[in-house]
Amino acid sequence: MLPLLIFHGASLNQSFAQVYVDSTYEANIPATDCINTVWNIYGALGASNHTFNGATVNIVGFNITVDIEYNLGIVVIPPSVPFTQSVNLGVLSAGTYNVTTKGLLDGTLTSTLNASLTVNSCCPVAASFNLSDSVACELDFIQCTNNSIAATGQSWYLNNSYVSSAINYSFTPSFPGTYIVKLVSSDGSCMDSTEQTLVVNTNPPVWLGPDSIICDGDSIILDAFFSGLTYLWQDASSNSTYTVLYPGNYWVTVTDDNGCISTDSVFVEVEVCNASISENKTNDDYIIFPNPAAESFSIWSETNQLVSIFINDVTGKMIYNRNVNGSQNYIIDCSDFANGLYIVNCIDGNGVVGSKRLVVQH
C-alpha cells in the first residue's frame, strides 16, 4: 500500500485512510492588494520520508489553484507526520477568491481542499518626505519636505516625540547626536509612516576671550587654535593667531573637518597711557589678580608687607587711597570703577613704590 499525502479536515474515500483538515489561510491577515499574499497550507504525510517537490499556482479570474507535490520515498517509513508549506500567490487584486489546494504524491492527486480568500484594498496613502541633510552641524537649519501621496493630514515626530502637524516641518538641532525624524500621513481612514535619520556633529570650539583694553604701542594676540580647524580672520588671513595693534572689532570663523563652522569676535580698545603714571617695573614682588577685573581684585606680595595703596586712572587722577597696615594680601572692590585702564601703586614698609597696570572690565 502506498503512503498518502493528506490534509486535516478533508476526507478521502479510501478504505485504508481517514483525512482531517484544519485550515488553509493567508499568512498576512488581512490580505491587501498592495503586497504579496502568502497562502499557508497545513496537512499530514502518510509516511515520514516523503520529500517536497514544489508548489504550482494557477490563477484564472477569482479562482486560484495551488498544487502541493511530494515524492514517494523508496521505502515507506511510517508513521504519518504533519507538514506546513507557505506559497506566495503574488499581489492580488481586491476581491474574493476561491482557492483550491491540491495534494499530489508522485503526480497523483490524493486530497483537495477548497477555501475562500478575501483581498482588501490597501491604504492609498504613501508617506514620504525629503530631508535637507542627513549629516549636519549644531544650529543648522533642517528642512523636512512632505511628498506623501493621497494624504489629507500628517503628524511629525522627532525622536518619537510629536512636534508638528504642519505639511512641512523644519527645525534647528541645538545639540550633537542622532535625530530620528518620522512622518505619519493619513487620509482619515488609514495611515502610513516613514522615518529618516539625521546625524548632527559638534561645532568647533572657538573663544577669543573678553573685549580688551591695551595701551597705545602695546599689542595683544588673539588665539583661535584647535586641532583640525581652518581659520578665516576679518582681513582674510588664515593663521590660528592674530596680533592686534589697533583699536577695532576683530573676528574669526573656524571650520572643522566635518564642515561645521563657529565664529567669535572681540573688541579691542587702545588708550593713551599717561607716562607720569606708567607702570614701575623695578619692583616685581606684587601680583594683581584677576586682571582684567570685574567686581574685585587682590594685591598680593610674597616678600613685602603693604603699607598703603593708591590707584590712578589714565589721566593721573587718584581715585583710591588706603592704608592697609602691613597686609601681604589685600582685596579691593572695583565694582564702581569705570571700565578702563588704571595704575595700582603699592608702598611697602621700606617706602618702596611698586606700580602695576590694572584693566577693569564689567
Termini separation (Å)? Answer: 106 Å
Strand content: over 45%
- H-E string: EEEEEEEEEEEEEEEEEEEEEEEEEEEEEE
Q: What does the main sheet amount to?
A: 5 strands, mixed
Uncertain segments are: 1-21, 275-282
Q: What's the overall geometry?
A: rod-shaped
Main-sheet strand order equals: 3-9-8-6-5
The Cα radius of gyration reads: 43 Å
Structural domain tally: 4
Total DSSP helices: 0
Mean pLDDT: 83
Which structural class is indicated by helix and strand composition?
Answer: mainly beta
Number of strands: 30
How helix-rich are the residues, as a percent range?
under 10%
Characterization of the model:
The chain has strands spanning about 5, 25, 30, 35-45, 50-60, 65-70, 80-90, 95-105, 110-120, 130, 135, 140-145, 155-160, 160-165, 170, 175-185, 190-200, 210-215, 220-225, 230-235, 240-245, 250-255, 260-270, 285-290, 295-300, 305-315, 320-325, 330-335, 340-350, 355-360. About 0% of the residues lie in helices and about 55% in strands. Mean pLDDT is about 85; it is low at about 1-20 and about 275-280. It folds into 4 domains: about 5-120; about 130-200, Immunoglobulins (Immunoglobulin-like, Sandwich); about 210-270, Immunoglobulins (Immunoglobulin-like, Sandwich); about 275-360, Immunoglobulin-like (Sandwich). The chain has about 350 residues and is an all-beta fold. It starts with a strand and ends with a strand.
